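[Discussion] Sanity-checking designs against the backbone

I'm trying to build intuition for which residues belong where. Below is a structure token string of 161 positions. I'd appreciate it if someone posts a full sequence so I can compare it with mine line by line.
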């Protein structure tokens, strides 16, 4: 004789009630942890200093009297008003033969357009007045950076368009 097999109920009504509900303690503490983590990230972004920079080429040349002249290529996407307050830095190490930091002196009124970019030439003035006697045979370019004013990370992210 065959025994009648009773269908086994895998989930009783009690089990279905427990599975169907999110435990309130998990919901309360989970949301609290997410909010606290978000607040910590915002506070950290206010405290982290950030100085944006753009890579550029700085050209060094010399006149017959021995005076050095420095020029930098500034992309046209940088507004003219902000160019005047920027600092420029030479990345290569020339053992104090060349100054490493510069400020804006004047800007050319001509825009140079190449296949890769459009830029204006900015004439630079060294921040240090002490300069070594240097003889340059040919004009050359060095890698440099355009340094924007230091801000915090949150201001920088919010000011980006």
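Best answer:
Here's mine. Compare freely.
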């Amino acid at each position: 004789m065959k025994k009648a097999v009773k269908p086994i109920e895998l989930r009783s009504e009690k089990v279905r009630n427990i599975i169907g509900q999110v435990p309130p303690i998990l919901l309360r503490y989970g949301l609290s942890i997410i909010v606290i983590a978000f607040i910590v990230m915002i506070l950290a972004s206010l405290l982290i200093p950030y100085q944006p920079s753009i890579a550029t080429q700085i050209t060094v040349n010399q006149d017959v009297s021995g005076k050095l002249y420095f020029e930098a290529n500034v992309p046209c996407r940088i507004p003219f008003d902000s160019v005047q307050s920027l600092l420029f830095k030479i990345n290569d190490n020339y053992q104090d033969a060349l100054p490493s930091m510069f400020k804006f002196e004047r800007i050319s009124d001509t825009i140079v357009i190449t296949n890769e970019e459009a830029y204006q030439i900015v004439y630079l003035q060294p921040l240090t007045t002490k300069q070594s006697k240097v003889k340059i045979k040919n004009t050359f370019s060095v890698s440099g950076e355009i340094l924007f004013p230091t801000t915090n990370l949150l201001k920088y992210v919010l000011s980006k368009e």
